[in-house]
Structures are given as structure tokens and as C-alpha cells.
Amino acid sequence: xxxxxxxFLAAFLAAAVAGVVTGTLVPLVTRMAHVFQAMDxxxxxxxxxxxxxxxxxxxxxxxxxxxxxFAALILRGLGALPLPxxxxxxxxxxxxxxxxxxxxxxxxxxxxxxxxxxxxxxxFLIVRIGWSFDVLGLxxxxxxxxGAFGQFASVLWIVGVTxxxxxxxxxDGLAGGVVAIIAGSFLVYALLRxxxxxxxxxxxxxxxxxGFLRYNWAPARIYLGxxxxxxxxxVLATTSVQSSLKAPAAVAxxxxxLALGLPVIDTLxxxxxRFVERPKGPISSRLxxxxxxxxxxxxxxxxxxxxxxxxxxxWIYGAVVIFCALALTVALMRSPAIGALLLVTEVAAVxxxxxxxxxxxxxxxxxxxxxxxxxxxxxxxxxxxxx
Length: 387
Known about the structure:
Blueprint: H1 2-35, E1 39-40, E2 52-53, H2 56-77, H3 85-107, H4 112-128, E3 135-137, E4 143-145, H5 148-167, H6 174-193, H7 196-216, H8 225-244, H9 254-259, H10 261-276, H11 283-289, H12 298-303, H13 309-333, H14 336-384
Antiparallel strand pairs: 1-2, 3-4
Helix pairs in contact: 1-2, 1-7, 2-7, 2-8, 3-4, 3-8, 4-5, 5-8, 5-10, 6-7, 6-8, 6-13, 7-8, 10-14, 13-14
């Protein structure tokens, strides 16, 4: 029990330090964003009407890093450091790589290909230290050893989740809140399994996100930027892979997939839509179109249905809470069959929410067309009567 209390204390302190440091640094980072012209200008796909600083990730990552170093020093002093030094260094280096490319993108811009290559390299570094999906649980109690494919799937998963969190960062308070909720579910899952690294790391992520949301809630005074959303996505992804190493084979992969279901499923659906929208184009251009920004993500769809952006954020928060609860249910029941069924349910739920937005847009477009037709008819009436 004293050993467990050490981790609880470290987790509490990590969350508190992350929240305080992040909240304290945001005003300073805001001024830095103005100096370096790291501003998100209005226009195009953007809904805001004035330039907003987009370097908020610097404050979040500083809060996260300082809190984790603080927690690691405490645990080391107690002789309870949960990871070997080489794994900690590799994790720190890979995370810094993703963070650095995000900062450069926020300030000067980075091509999608360059960001992708850095993300793949960082993910490969994580897999090289032994963090990868190894076993897939099957219905009936059997399991499948993934072998080398598990390493490939792990790189794909890390890069995919990293970008899924980045792409969901489209409304004030959305990405930070979603990450905090998912981190909270990972924290509960880690408590159930007694995973000290995940307990401390997810507590720090929650603290940093909550400290930032004070400034990011509508109307936002600063955005996460790629420096924040990419880094938070990478941390969630790597933590989910590492936690699967000690999880029962039946739920090792299913739990993180279910918890991260909404951003991941939505991203996959959007990419599929982008691909099929160009049926006559060459395969290369259709593949490149999958990575082009647009307004087809779930939060964009729901904006066509809701009266306010805050309502959309609240709906997505609620959906993420439900998805995380489903993940924890599978973790407790340890049933691959139930996990697969719930995954299908999540896909159906995301598709249904997207269709609601599309139907609302279709109704609004039809109403606009009827109004324009009526106005054209009324303007032509005087001409018919010679007036």
C-alpha cells in the first residue's frame, strides 16, 4: 500500500503542477506568438473573425514536461521509477521531435509530407524500444500473435492517433477537452491494472489540458496549434501502446481503440470520403486528396445542425465520455466479442451523427433554393403584366 500511495501522490502532484505551470505560461506564450507572428488568421475554412495566437501548445507541453520531470524525481527518490532510463530517453526524444515539428509549423509552416515523416520516425523510435501491439484477442478466448505486423500496426496507430487529435482541433475548447476526457479514461484503466507510468502520465495530461482550457474556451484567446494537438495526440497514442503491453490479451488493443474511437473513426471516414469524391482522377491524386484539409469532420457537420459552437463541443464531449465508458466496460469484462460489437456500435454512432449534419445542411440548402426561386418569381411577375 505505501508503494501504491507513492504513485497516487506523484500523479496528484503531476496534475497540479501541469495545470498551474500551463495556466501561468499561457499569457507569456500569447505574447511570444504575437512576436513570432504565430497567428491563426481568419478567412477560408476558419470561423473566427480576428487573428488568434496558435502557439498554445508550447504552454501545454512545458506544463506537461515540467510536471513529469517533477514526478519522476519524486519516484526516483522513492526507488519507484516505473521505466528504464533508455525507454524514458527514447520517449522524451520522440515526443520532442513531434513537438518541435509542430512549433515550426505554427511559426513558419511545414509541409504535410515533412510532418508525416517526422511522425513516422518518432513512432518507429517508440516501437524500437519494444512498445508495440503484440497480441490480438479473439472471440472464444483465443489470441493471435501479431509478430512483425504488430510493429507496423503500432507505427500506423501512433501516427494515426497523433493526426486524429490534430484534426479534431477545430472548435474552441474541443481538442483540449476531448484529450482530457480520454486521458481520464486511460487513468481509470491504469488504476484498474496498477500501471504506474500511465497513472502519472495521464494525470499530467489532464492537468495540462484543464489549465489550458481556461484560455481556450469560447471565445478562445489562444489555440493549441500543431505544437499542442500533435504532441497530445502522440502522448495518448504511445501511452495506449505501452499500456497494452501489460493488459490481458483479450482487451490489449480493443480498449485504446474504443476510448479513442470518436476522433479515429471520424478521421478515417473523412479520408474515405475525400478518396471517393474523385472517382475519375489518378490514384496518386486521390491518395493526396485524403490528406487535404476541408470542412467535413464531425464537428463541422454538427455545426450545420446546432445553434452554437458550444453546443457542438458539448455533444462531442458527451459522445467521447460514452465511448470511454464503453472502453472501460470491455476492460472489466475482458470480452473480445463484446469489444468488437461495441466498436461496430461506435462506428454506427459516428456515421449517424455525421448524417444528421448532412441532412440539416440539405434542408437548409433546399429552403434557400425555394426562397431564391420565390424571389425570382415575384421579380418576374411585373414584367409579365407589362409593368
